[in-house]
Amino acid sequence: MDGYQGLTALIESAWEELNSSDADRRDLCLDAVSDVLETGRLTQDDAERAVERLVTVALSDEGYPVRESALHAVCTASTHYELPYRVVEPLAAGTDGFAPLLLAYVLAILGCTHDQAALPIVERLLHHPHSEVRREAAEAVTELRWHHRESAQDKTA
Residue 81's closest CA among 49, 122, 59, 119? Predict the structure, then answer.
């Protein structure tokens, strides 16, 4: 088994363990997925599939630590892969269901997509009651607008 097959086998094993009723065990599985994503050695397609599953966990798992681990893993992926907005869009749609500390992850993820479709959601959170959320929203807006300007300049150059 080569290194890549070992990484994909590790992720598949972690997905199977996510069915556990033990929240600590699910949390550890998500840490393993995050570690694999951090290597940057998955194909883009495999990374996107992993992120889609992580987004589902972040939106559906009722345990805060598990949701945080899933979002942390998506943030990790966003630093090593170009994540299309369509992959993380369910997070944008679910922003009202996240606690403020989890919203910070969501905003960082949306900013990393560099997709203008995320801008209305991110801008809405500039008025959130929690200062940390407002700060993260401002950073995400800056990232989205900066990348949009860079793209526009590249097209005219």
Answer: 49
